[in-house]
Design goal:
Elements (H helix, E strand, L loop, with lengths): L2 H11 L13 H30 L3 E5 L6 H7 L7 H12 L11 E5 L12
Antiparallel strand pairs: 1-2
Length: 124
């Protein structure tokens, strides 16, 4: 076969691409996409609320807030084994929805139930 015949044979095999209609996603693809979006939303909501659930299951005690009480002083009086005073204060704030550590005298708040109490120190 000569080069001219080969070029002619090759050109016959190639057909110009015909414009195709846009491919619409199938019904099942739309359902799969919807399910993935719903699962992603549920995952995000689960992560966002997981910290609240862990405290809800934790045993708590109620403490009356007196004038001059702070999250720190209450955390010292109600220590949680394995946590620092800072961590306990943050936990108490989170359990009670306290913003910026603000406590109001005369209210009752929840604190983690502790297996040990800090000894009371009398101030003179």
């Amino acid at each position: 076969m000569s080069t001219t015949e080969l070029a002619h044979a090759t050109s016959r095999r190639r057909r110009p691409a015909e414009p195709s209609e846009p491919v619409e996603p199938s019904h099942s693809a739309a359902i799969e996409t919807f399910i993935l979006i719903v699962l992603a939303i549920l995952l995000i909501l689960g992560i966002a609320t997981s910290s609240g659930r862990s405290h809800a299951a934790q045993p708590t005690s109620r403490v009356h807030v007196d004038a001059g009480d702070t999250l720190w002083s209450i955390a010292v009086a109600h220590p949680v084994e394995g946590q620092t005073t800072q961590q306990t204060a943050e936990l108490i704030a989170e359990m009670n929805g306290s913003r910026a550590g603000v406590l109001i005298a005369g209210t009752t708040i929840r604190v983690p139930a502790s297996s040990r109490r800090s000894p009371t120190v009398a101030c003179r």
